Structure prediction request, 319 residues.
Amino acid sequence: MAPNEFALIRQLFHSARWRELNSTHPSCLLGPGDDCALVTPPPNEHIALSIDTALPGVHFPQGATGAQIAVRACSTALSDLAACGANPLGFLVAVQIPQLDEDFLHALSDGLYEVASHYSIPLLGGNMARGLLAVTVQVVGSTSAALRRDQAQEGDRIFVSGTLATAAAGLVKVRDDLHTEHPFAAAYWRPTPRIQLGMCLRGIASSAIDISDGLVQDVGHIAQASGLGAQLDRSALPVHPDVVAEYGSEQALLWAANAGDDYELCFTVPVDKIPLLHRNAPTFPPCVEIGHMVSGTGVYYMGEDSDIPASGYDHFASN
Prediction:
């Protein structure tokens, strides 16, 4: 006999591997199985919270496996903690599914565990309901000095971590073959939340954001929140060379500026603190200076008069 909802939840999310993972985190006092989880943040730290919902045809292609959805959904949610400079304390997951599909849910549990065990974060709880497919992940973290979007100052230099445009190229590969193992596809399905970098940037960066909706649009969020404009050096954008080799420099640059899904960190640094950034450089992925904050509004390429149209992702617009 197939297990019912509650038996399946116990089997998938209250199993020995989850209990062992939860027991290793000092902040997790009570995990799944009760009406609420109990979490104790480290002394003198603020709680950081973020929540994201992943939908088919919007955040992942139709027909994706439970594992693919889980890894991507959990990783992208953790990226918000990285952008805030927060240390993860745990996460919750809510699954809406048309029917009780054991294979899909086992794969979903495996994908969540893959990410959770890699970053040593406990599963605090969750919910399951019948309906159109949706996976919602809420992450809980803590920080003593949060990175925000609204603290950039005129003259601050703009940096970005890693390389850009790989996830956009990966989405092209995935649309051609949902289960391709091409490296570009891996960048799309398995983004790397820059948690260690975010924590290293506390006390160095004046503002930060993760690149989820497109570099230009996300830089624009920092600029708008800080009451400033931004100038970017088009030639400095760290476009992945393999993307340039396969799709050409023009397409690669367009993706780097507007496509999103890279989940790298974009952040601003006062000039006098740049040496601190370089001093910590061996501990995190390469960070490249791509521009600076200016008075005014909008995001511009250096040497150009008109601002760059922000064509990043918008849930309620035609993308």
The mean pLDDT is 90.
